[in-house]
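Ticket #4471: structure export looks truncated?
Reporter: QA, pipeline team
Priority: medium

Steps to reproduce: submit the single chain below to the structure queue and open the exported record.
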Amino acid sequence: MSHHEDQLSSHSRRRFLTLAGGAALSLPWLESFANAKDHQAEVPAQRLAFFYLPNGITRRGFFPGESDRPLPPFAGQNNVWRFEGKTVPPGRHALTLTSTLAPLHKMRNKVSLITGLDRTFQHGTDSHAQCASCFLTSVAPYEVKGSAYPLTRTLDHIAADSIGQSVPYSTLELSCNDHKNNIESIYFDNMSWYGTGHVAPSMRDPRKVYDRLFGTQAHTRFRNITDLALGSARQMQKRLSTNDREKFGEYLESVRTIEKRMDRIERMKSELAAADIKRPAEYLPRNEYIHLMGDLLVTALQSGLTNVGTLMAGPERWTTPTNWEGILDKPYSHHAMTHAISNHLEQLLKLDRFHVSAFARLLERMDGIEEANGTTLLDNTIFTLGAGMGDGTTHQYNDLPLVVAGGGGGMLNLGSHIHCERGTPLANLWLTQLQALGIERKTYADSTGILKDILA
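Actual output as written to the record:
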């Protein structure tokens, strides 16, 4: 092993290029770093990730068979409405990709649409307040005394207690919300919690995420890791196979692309600040922001910096208009549009489709990243797209929009539409995912069992 390479620990096969001043370029899995015996025996790490959608979705574009449903009335902030959908027999069905789900076409064999799962709204807060905050919670409604929220340690941290202890970051919490709103509390803007009242703060600045992943905080002259890595990389590449050289080149280029996009956003922020723009969120390209944060999450999973990650595509109930460059014709407030759906149906459908396309983009990238034993990063990940509210207009807590992707290390059988019996708790899905990760657990929050139809 050259002085440019260093193992994280005796239990990890991940390598790092040690760069100037202690910065490090984390490396993806490379077969050249394992001898033949180790290569045969190596089992890829299992990962767990979540892509959270704020303010629910527009049902008629997302759910099969609802394209002609009447537009629902606004239900009011604390009046949680129950949707009585068309009758679908419980069980496994052929996967129908609606207009909103169409971006998943390339990955249709590695995703399943899960419908019919419910949550219980615990009265005492605004309906939006329990959406993201309680989406992954491990406690049943009304079980926590003295709190308006059914909220304690969330699924990501519970899973990381088992699968996140041999990596630098047991969890990685990311949020695509870099602006303030003095009206809302932390419960509208965080989905990851260490326990009741103890939020796991999410990172919102791509540069800060990048600095944490690659240790570049002290390198103000060389903010881009690829500039620092070139000399060390040339030394390392002498030991790589032809396939690994190509793989490493692609990885380095993906990091370089992230750097270029960060630089672009930072230049735009500087220009807006110089122009004394009061609400920069109306000018910065929000879709590029989401793509960039998603790519940072995938890079962290790929390079073994974390095995568990959450990404919020936006906050609940924020009223600030934001700029969806190339998607919507002007800045809109996502939340405000859901309360006037008859006036904004077209914009909402476009926005929902973009969110799904951003998720699909990450899946396609992960499925192209090779790992040990001929598997891909996606094969070894359980990646869930979902929302804590079934519809932003009705504020319903039943029949939530959920897509589960990946392979779970061979534990998942996807490629279908799984419809659950009425009244099946969302916690059943989380219990199923824990068991697929090899984490022994008999119950989770208000679970009543597991979803056998998605297990291999």
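Status: closed, not a bug. The export was complete when the record was re-opened. Leaving a note from the reviewer for reference: The domain at 47-454 is CATH 3.40.720.10 (Alkaline Phosphatase, subunit A).
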